[in-house]
Amino acid sequence: MENQNLSPLSVSIPNKRYFTIGEASRICDVKAHVLRYWESEFNELEPIKRKGNRRYYQQKDIILVLQIKDLLQNKGFTIDGAKNMIINKNVDSDSSTSKHFINQIQKDLEEILSILKK
Fold first, then answer.
1. Can you give the residue range of the structural domain that contains 18?
2. pLDDT over 70 (residue 111)
3. Predicted model pTM
4. How many domains, in total, are found in the chain?
């Protein structure tokens, strides 16, 4: 799964409410220990923790991880630079989040339509 050069909007996020750290890791193509490290560095990344300190990521968390990955790996930011971009909302997260959800809804509807046509 080579998603390194893909934009956060081009990654398909399954239509689920919660994702385990393993699922988030696969979707974002980032190792689990990197996700845990980013949680300690980026206050905005706060997956829900349940029994046994298990992490459950929501779609907004996945999108944030993809944005962090893009800033660090594709745009060459340092951790501090990426933090500043996210804190200052220079990532335009509301706009990209909305676009991603619209794209995801469109894909889901097209899939439903193809199933109904069968």
1. 8-117
2. yes
3. 0.70
4. 1
